[in-house]
Amino acid sequence: MKIIATFVLLTWGIGNLFSQATKVATKTPCTLSGYIKDAASAEELLYVNVWVEALQSGATSNNYGFYSLTLPPGTYRITYSYLGYQTLTQTVNLTKDTQLNVELKSDAKTLQEVVVSSEKPDEAVREVSMSRMDVPIAQMKKLPALLGEPDIIKMVQSMPGVTSAGEGTSSFYVRGGAADQNLVLIDEAPVYDVSHLYGLFSVFNADILKGAELYKGGIPAKFGGRLSSLLEVTTKDGNAREFSGGASISTLAAKVNVEGPIVKDKASFILAGRRSYADLIMNQIPDLKGTSVKFYDLNGKINWKINNKNRFFLAAYTGRDVFKLGKDFQMDWGNRTSTLRWNHLFNERMFSNTTLIYSNFDYALESKQGINGFRWEANQREYSLKQDFSWFPSPKLTVQFGYQGTYRKFQPGEIKPNSENTIFKPTTLQPRFALDQALYLSIEQKISERLALQYGLRFSLFQDMGPGTVYRYQNASDNVNYVITDSTKYASGKAIATFANPEPRFAARYQLNPESSLKFSYNRMVQYIHLISNSTVPIPFNTWEPSSTYLQPQKADQLAIGYFRNFDKNAWEFSAEAYYKKMDHLTAFADNANIFFNANLSTEFRQGKGTSYGLELLLRRNVGDLRGFASYTLSKTEMTIPTVNNDQAFPANYDRRHSFNLSLTYDLSKRWSVGGNFTYATGRPITLPTGQYNYGNYQTNLYSSRNGYRLPAFHRLDLAATYEPGKNKAARWHSTWVFGVYNAYNRKNPFSIYTRVKQDKDGKVIGDGTEKEARMVYLFSALPYVTWNVKF
Amino acid sequence: MMKNSILALLAIVTLFACEKTIYLDVKQAEPVLVIEANVTNQLEQQVVKLSKSSTFGVTGKTPRVSGASVEVKDNFNNGYRFVEKEPGVYRSEQAFAGIAGRTYTLLVKAEGKTYTASEQMTTNTPIDSLTYHIDEQEMQKPKNPDRFYEVLLYVQEPQATVDYYLFQFYRNGKLENDEGRSVFISDDKILNGQVEGLKFPLFFAANDEAKIEIIHITPSAYKFYSDLEASIGNDGGVFSGQPANVYTNISGGARGYFLVAAVASGSLRVVQ
Q: What is the ipTM of this complex?
């Protein structure tokens, strides 16, 4: 803690220094700065376009809704534009540093909920960063969803460059990266398991979301820790003007949310809850004997805007899945996160963000069967401090720098006997500790009208910390007969292994003309923590492992180029991106690895190499009655893992050659709108048997190559219609109905193929038990659903 | 334990799922020799079975391999010749019992190729006792009309050593493992040493003979059986690991296992 305290003082010193320096160095120019918010709810708007016509230059509000422009004194017409909002033009006579908070009015022509989109009209062409996409939250709610539950992870899975392992899973794979290579943040706090009901749904309740951004490449130096992507989810601040709320009931879950001012325009809150109710029905069925399944989520946030210079928020999330199998067996898992953030303005050009973050993921299995009675728990938690500075010395230059420090504790497993005559003894796997730190500097610079650069460096330092014991093995990768030859004990606070890596980041945009641009980016990413999973789709019983003596940090270098073009006054956006990614020390496991409760887990690691390359096309329409996007991805991902597949390269589990998605919504009238999704993807690679043999009365398979075959292609169409009855002026509330069907043409999409001894429907073996059969599993047939939403 | 939990969880996903049998159009691998060889601590004619792998999905037993030369040696220069008694089944000429601590080496020459494997004989883990009683719940709704007796195992597990076990259950002399769909193995890492009343995973009728064999296996044999279990329960690599070949301790390109292990057994007859 001392180190952190010293550091904070130091960075604050730097912050003050910079702000003083700016004042001295730029005596003549003046800074126009402030916050941009929604006029109705006072909700801050992120990434709003601020444009100075006379100078043909501008800025964007940051992800806290703050903007800063430093200009020579004079009178300017400043235009604030934001998708879904009326453009506001203000004339400003700038003679000294000026604060101007701006409120934009929604241009929603119906009574629909305010469209909070985080994209400005020509953002895609003009911004330096590429390979970045926002998840259209408002549109998502009109699109069809499984069991009527809108889900941002499902939206992410439909984006170019992203694949899924199949429907009904919440993992996503970005540009050839594994599921654990995505950093998923809710209000800056990482969420380690984003799945509910084993992945059927994600933990993100759509009612509380303000925005979500996916970064697939060209990742700014501010972010790090995962190889492939960053999904940054931001929740609403809460309406600071008036109380409002909503509730909804879908085929799956019931939701309720309420928000409002604590002190008008100064402090606000929002609370949202969601609960599935299948268990309430299941409990009524005697045959199930107590078997039930449920999940819930709770989100809460308090905002306090003391003044323009100091703002706080406290956000918390908790969610859990509980699965009961009869009376004696229970499993549950969930995440808890909280974020305390302080935004501070040193002056108009120096913005600071200080964040304290806590995140916890845990699971438990419990058997209450007397002799087999035990409770098994595992968890991991982390505490982080982030100090970010944004400095706006001129409209041509934005500098971001800061520090992030995280202390992690991993408890991979603990078994507690829970009855007197149980055969189990209390057993604990060695807990692990790690200190993860990074310093970064990121500069965005407009070199000329046409050329803009974003470059930076992240320097990351990771330490596997004591207390702990490291074993030496005769052969560190012998997972059968491991022979421990020696062990070294490390005291608390002692570093067991230290890794340091510079992570350069670079992005460039060259504007060809006002409608089109070319972009290039390079980034190196390093990942120090590894998900202990050898399945295609991670399960809630997977824990994470820090890089250490036997586990190297994973590294990736990615190059990407892109062409961006807008048509018809930015009504249509088109982009084409190509990427090449090389991955080193890719974490994988030996064949049939034992990854559960294994004290010698390190003998199961097999780190190898991977490459991925692809082409991604996107066409998107953001305005008018017809909105939506079409995406196409052509990609290939291969990996080479020692001892696996005879050391030969094999396709990644989530490698799909072609992937196409179309998501459209259309407003038919003020009351009716319709939406549709169509998705097509090459089948996922699978490993199929190339023979069988007997051992005793067991029938087992012979395999020749890993992922040598593919499932048939996946395709599906979903449809939805939203009806909004006219608002009764007297009523204080209004409602909407969503009707939909998932998998409209009832395609039986293969989920998996497995093999078994040939048997009939009741599980009786057919014949003498020597014959095997292959079974193809399908998930969802056509599933209709209804959702009723009410807002007040 | 974990695997069962995962399978149970899969039920959620499969709540929505349906499935069908399909024909697999895959390139078939060249047949390989499969060795099922045992040396126990019991004084008996030890058995080695040789067969071949077949194409996936065929009916009937896989082809037996005849005319091979099979031999077992220990590290005290004792050699035991095996002779083919019926096609593919080779028995030691003389009965012999494996001795704890000795290393046994298998040498098989079949169809012009040589295969070897070695393993060290383990120590015995004696069974204290077995008891039985009526399982009231099962008696109310038995899956099989007369089978509602539950048999319980009592055993002391030595805690000073790291041990691995394979359990085999018999009803009236017939091996019961869910017709080749269950493997019963355990290590002792989370056991407290006092096993007092562990239920057999099957029910018995009156007059049935219940028998258990506790086979104290090596870490390597444990790997073989745990891979076998993973292979049988694999879901195609979605939530379970990717399907892969089961571990073998045999060199030379054969599959299967040469198991050298001490067997402790106990049995009782259920009396009404």
A: 0.94
